[in-house]
Design goal:
N-acetyltransferase domain-containing protein; 3-stranded antiparallel beta sheet; 15% helix; 1 helix; Acyl_CoA_acyltransferase; 39 residues; GNAT_dom; alpha+beta
């Protein structure tokens, strides 16, 4: 499972088992990071 999370909520997704990968980028003026979790 992959998602494009706002960096402000990265820790929330990490607590759910997601891991960040790649570099941060900007979407709609807000920093985001790609995250994934094996199901």
């Amino acid at each position: 499972m992959e998602l494009h999370a706002q960096t402000a909520v990265r820790a929330f997704y990490e607590r759910l088992g997601y891991e960040a990968y790649g570099e941060e980028d900007i979407e709609a003026g807000i920093p985001h990071i790609w995250m994934r979790k094996a199901l």
